[in-house]
Amino acid sequence: MKRSTRRLPSGAFVCGLVVAALAPAGVSRAQGAGGAVYDFLLAEPGARAAAMGGSFVARQDDVTGLFYNPAAIGPGIDRQASVSYQNHVTDIQSGFLAYGRTLPRIGSLAVGLRYTNYGQFDETDENANALGTFSAQEMALTLGYGYEPLTNLRLGLSGSLIYSGLAKDASSSGIAADLGALYTVPTQGFTVGASLRNLGTQLTSYGSEKESLPLSLELGVSKQLTHLPITIDAGLHRINGEANSLGDRLGRFSVGAELTPAPPLRLRVGYLNNRREALRTDGSSALDLAGLSFGAGVTWRAYILDYAFTSYSAVGSLHQLSLRTTL
Fold this sequence. Notes:
Elements: E1 2-6, H1 11-21, H2 23-30, H3 47-51, E2 80-87, E3 93-103, E4 107-124, E5 130-150, E6 153-167, E7 170-185, E8 190-204, E9 216-224, E10 230-236, H4 246-250, E11 253-262, E12 265-272, H5 273-279, E13 292-300, E14 303-311, E15 317-326
Parallel strand pairs: 1-4
Antiparallel strand pairs: 2-3, 2-15, 3-4, 4-5, 5-6, 6-7, 7-8, 8-9, 9-10, 10-11, 11-12, 12-13, 13-14, 14-15
Helix pairs in contact: 1-2, 2-5
């Protein structure tokens, strides 16, 4: 993939590129992110969560929960590994890796890697003279720790090293930390979670000024319905962002459901209201699915294959595949 652009080694170029490439980035700004950098940190790292509209803050049975809430790092993801591939609407490629392990006398640890490749770009000067080509990519390496200080209460902490290279002379590095908590009521099949994501700073900036990270305070609940093979998840995202009213903050919600009609098969559906508000096509006679997502998971022996489809209205759609197993 090649694109033509003028040389803009600045935060404006960074944000413009990511907003144009990733719909989640546009949603983050609708939630009050401002001019934050490293928006790729908000991409869905697993097909299971993507199919459920990103309602994953209260989940603790999937190793990709590391990226939503570090309190998910625990016995529920011991020896679990996940690899995920995401093909964005503009043909940008993303990959995610995660692995969790619980060790005696140490606790529960997890490691994850997020990588996005934006492809190859043509570099020109102000007169459109060709100067060559350059590539753009971003990545983050995450290490997390979770423990249980009290019965049914889990706490977690993770740290990430971030690198972003968006042009020959436009690169940046940063650090970020995530904090999280989960409280479970086993007799009710109910879990409530809270996380503070991307608390950090740039170590080196694209230009002379440092920019903020996409800080996100999130709340979530998960409920296994009694006598039904359905789990309902809901969450509030970016509730720390700028808002005109309490209604605006409450409008930053997502909801997802996971149905298990038979042990090898799981069906999922989700809705992210922020995506709907940012991308819906008003006045269109066609069915507008902006904000909706759905998918399925199939278990075969020790492997779970997950698929997610996410609609971005007239912009296009996103497909994601994940493979999980126990090592």
